[in-house]
Design a protein that fits this description.
Blueprint: H1 10-19, H2 26-36, E1 41-44, H3 51-65, E2 75-80, H4 84-97, E3 105-108, H5 115-121, E4 125-130, H6 132-140, E5 151-154, H7 157-162, H8 166-174, E6 181-186, H9 191-200, E7 205-209, H10 214-217, E8 219-225, H11 231-241, E9 247-250, H12 254-266, E10 271-274, H13 280-292, E11 297-300, H14 302-305, E12 315-318, H15 325-332, E13 342-348, H16 353-363, E14 368-369, H17 376-389, E15 460-461
Parallel strand pairs: 1-6, 1-7, 2-4, 2-5, 3-4, 5-6, 8-13, 8-14, 9-11, 9-12, 10-11, 12-13
Antiparallel strand pairs: 7-15
Helix pairs in contact: 2-3, 3-4, 6-8, 11-17, 15-16
Bound molecules: adenosine monophosphate.
Adenosine monophosphate binds next to helix 3.
């Protein structure tokens, strides 16, 4: 199948051709025709599969085919997404695909002043991409009217539930016209999502991209046993000795991520952190630098990194093992994408051994144990000296550190006792639109689900089973 067979409006075909897309990805082949026909769609797919275009193109086609005057503070299409980054990414896709249409796209999320968003919504827009909390704030302020929405997308629905957005979603859908087209996309289909789908979708066409098992199979995985205090020396050494083109280093906590960035700087290794305590401008800068290749090392917490479309990562370092074993699969699924190879190296401290066992049980294989570098003692000594000589590498005073230390990090406790260390559940949710700057909403309470792998190589199937099942593939 090629895009011309989908008979999309001419401005869309032109924009797609310019972007260099020639064949629709499997999720696009499956979802676009029923969506164009006006059906509701339940899509099981994740970032990296081309799912944004799978819902954006039919929506834009309908907007192009049925032009209407914009109504003040209203929108015709509404896309809800769990995080600021994902919302921005989706809005950018609408803008790119709709560049030859007279299209007005707005994106709203928390953590930034609301005034500019109110002004953007005032004349009315065609497409509004929003995180749920900020959207409700805007509705409550009388700056947004959802009564004219014709098309609704709930994107990364499982993550929205994980982040405790269920009540917001219910409130928002209660404000929408009953007569509308609804598309729900989720990487997994746990019972809570099935229930949502039953409630909000009418005779949906179910489309799914089968996990591309090869994604994770192509990742060469290993573990190095090392004490927590010596991890930085090891990481700094691996970053220069391994053939690292670009890498994501995962930590469990926001402050852990900041500390790694500071201490790498003492080794003259430039890294940027991405997590929920960073301002929007800092997060955008970090991601842009990483995408352009200016920054080779991105230090991230799990939730901040989810849903992001970051191509060409050669290495994943699990600087701290995740509390939830499925998260390991998500992390390493960020390498070996689009036919490339990738490496994933876990740095396992003695108190993380139980987590390693959980991971190995989940992926049904034992990680190869890699030895410490031969001159490791010298490296540890050197690292200690460099950090001591660099005042910037020291931890900031306690009061500047915020709260996540108390919820995670390495304190010698059984790390499994520290669930949701990087912001879910307890306080502000990392990466989420922290209501959107601090107070957490009630946590979703659901453990992280195993996500299937992505990539356009996945086969299409009619249906996939319950996402609670642990899947060895990742995204
Ligand atoms: P998504 O899963 O929507 O985040 O998309 C993943 C990436 O694939 C994005 O960089 C898109 O620009 C790209 N993409 C989407 N559809 C296609 C296609 N049909 N052909 C080539 N690239 C695509």
């Amino acid at each position: 199948m090629n895009f011309s067979e989908l008979a999309l409006a001419e401005p869309l075909s032109r924009a797609i051709a310019e972007k260099g897309y020639d064949t629709p990805s499997p999720i696009q082949q499956a979802a676009i025709p029923p969506a164009l026909a006006g059906n509701d769609v339940l899509g099981l797919a994740q970032t990296g599969t081309g799912k944004t275009a799978a819902f954006a193109l039919p929506m834009l086609h309908r907007l192009a085919a049925t032009p209407k005057h914009r109504l003040k503070i209203s929108t015709r299409a509404l896309v809800l997404a769990p995080t600021r980054e994902l919302a921005s990414q989706i809005a950018a896709s609408f803008q790119a695909y709709g560049r030859y249409m007279k299209l007005s796209v707005a994106v709203v999320f928390g953590g930034v002043p609301i005034g500019r968003q109110e002004r953007a919504l005032f004349p009315g827009v065609d497409v509004l991409v929003a995180t749920p909390g900020r959207l409700l704030d805007l509705v409550m302020k009388g700056s947004c009217d959802l009564g004219h929405v014709e098309m609704l997308v709930l994107d990364e629905c499982d993550q929205m539930l994980d982040l405790g957005f269920i009540h917001d979603l219910k409130r928002i859908t209660g404000l929408l016209p009953k007569q509308r087209q609804t598309m729900l996309f989720s990487a997994t289909l746990p019972p809570a999502i099935e229930e949502l789908a039953q409630r909000y979708l009418r005779n949906p066409v179910k489309v799914a991209v089968q996990p591309a098992a090869t994604t994770v199979e192509r990742v060469v995985q290993s573990v190095i046993h090392v004490s927590q205090t010596e991890k930085l020396a090891l990481l700094a050494n691996l970053l220069v000795s391994e053939d690292v083109a670009s890498t994501i280093v995962f930590t469990r906590t926001k402050h852990g991520a900041d500390r790694v960035v500071r201490q790498l700087a003492a080794h003259k290794i430039t890294a940027e952190a991405i997590h929920g305590n960073r301002s929007q401008a800092q997060r955008t800068r970090a991601l842009t630098g990483f995408r352009t290749g200016e920054v080779k090392v991105l230090v991230a917490t799990d939730i901040a990194a989810r849903g992001l479309d970051i191509p060409a990562v050669s290495h994943i370092f699990n600087y701290e093992l995740p509390n939830v074993p499925e998260q390991y699969v998500h992390r390493i699924g960020r390498t070996a994408r689009a036919g490339r190879d990738g490496r994933a190296i876990a740095l396992c401290a003695p108190d993380e051994r139980p987590l390693l066992k959980d991971i190995e049980r989940t992926i049904r294989m034992q990680l190869d144990v890699q030895a410490l570098p031969p001159n490791f003692r010298d490296l540890v000594g050197l690292t200690a000296k460099l950090i001591k000589a660099s005042p910037a590498a020291a931890d900031p005073p306690r009061e500047e550190r915020g709260s996540d230390r108390s919820r995670g990090g390495h304190s010698g406790r059984d790390p499994r006792a520290v669930v949701h260390a990087d912001g879910r559940g307890g306080g502000g949710r990392d990466g989420a639109p922290r209501r959107e700057g601090g107070q957490g909403r009630p946590g979703g309470g659901r453990p992280q689900q195993g996500r299937p792998g992505g990539g356009f190589g996945g086969q299409r199937t009619g249906q996939r089973d319950n996402g609670n099942r642990r899947s060895p593939a990742g995204r």
